[in-house]
Amino acid sequence: MRLLLSAAFVALATAPAMADEIRIAHIHDMTGALEAYAAQSQIGLMMGLEYATEGTMQVEGNDLVVTEYDSQLRPDLGRALLAQAFGDDGADIAVGPTSSGVALAMLPVAEEYERILLVEPAVADSITGADWNRYIFRTGRNSSQDAISNAIALGQEGVVIATLAQDYAFGRDGIAAFREALEGTPARLVHEEYAPTDTTDFTAAAERIFNALQEHEGDRRLFVIWAGGNNPMSRIQAMDPGRFGIQMATGGNILPAMVSYRDFPGMEGATYYYYEIPQNPVNQWFVEQHMERYGTPPDFFTAGGMAAGIAIVEALRASGGSTDAEDLITAMEGMHFETPKGEMWFRAEDHQAMQSMYHFRIAIHDGVEWAVPELVREITPDMMDIPIRNQ
Question: Which residue segments constitute the domains of the chain, with CATH numbers given?
């Protein structure tokens, strides 16, 4: 187990206390297949706190102190670390984690300690659905938002779709939501395939998918939901699905992963964020500052982390600086706040952040090492009937 104090706050830990502290625990999967996502989330969280406090890192005269914990993709460790953060380390609010499996293990701890867990970026619907409790809020998109936006992008007349996803909560929740969303479109879902997260040979799965799609006439698509390493898209593309009239489809991803999307010009899907798409003052600051500090544009999970940081500050302001969970719940239910994606708000029924998604078409730009998801249209919250799954 690693416990790291964010470098940005080392000075606060060593300097004489000039104000009360609000302690924020950031528990995320810094080790393992999702470590790139975790690193982005941490950078974004710190930038969000900075932006929302105009650089003071204070709310109502209280210093914001962030401590990082590494959950290592282990649900048991994530649960133990959250209990440590709340019980031993005096955390007032927690943020994270990266993995849906880890998040599900952490939810009961927030309820036990009666403190807020702001989930970012774990996606599974069950986090704000069947396993939800009133101390859980989420700025990250959920599986239904992913699925419905992709169904809007792909669900056209004459389209037949097979799916491939990871065999755990993220993948199965995602496909369940996608299946449900497609029922309201002219497209048909004809086959589902699941594979372990550590799969490296997709030959058998691809052959089953190809055979299933060949039984149906129409515009054949293979829609892939995959997070972390071993993404199967390029491996399956190497098997030449085009000879069966099959095109690949998927949602957005981090920029390093989108290098492989260059093999799929014209591919369509829906994404959570791409730095050139949203046009608003928050995103303008975010892109400029990230480029200046890191030499790269902000990415998928950096934007999510920033949204979480902004939400925390706005909630604390609305509560008058109180970290009491009841005060924060009152402040956060229905709360609107500006993010790099534009306006979000927490739905009162399940505390899921309502937010736009983006229908894209892949293009190849000279001098850009990754494929560019060019905007086809913004899919606004009113265009997505996101189910309330905790009732």
Answer: 3-141+278-354 (3.40.50.2300), 144-271+357-383 (3.40.50.2300)
- Report yes or no: 297 and 275 within 8 Å, Cβ to Cβ: yes
Region 68-85: mean pLDDT is: 98
Report the 10 Å Cβ neighbour count for 390. 19
Q: Are 189 and 214 in contact (CB under 8 A)?
A: no
Closest CA to 25 of 45, 53, 11: 45
Could you tell me the pLDDT band of residue 127, with boundaries at 50, 70 and 90? Answer: very high
Conformational region of residue 226, where left means phi above 0, alpha means psi within -120 to 50, and beta covers everything else: beta
CA–CA distance, 147 with 161 (Å, rounded to integer): 13
List pLDDT tens digits, range 234-276. Answer: 899 999 999 999 999 999 999 998 999 999 999 999 999 999 9
CA 235 to chain centre: 25
Mean of pLDDT over the chain: 93
Token couple for 193: 């395939």
| Predicted local confidence at residue 391, as pLDDT | 78
- Both tokens of residue 62? 């209280």
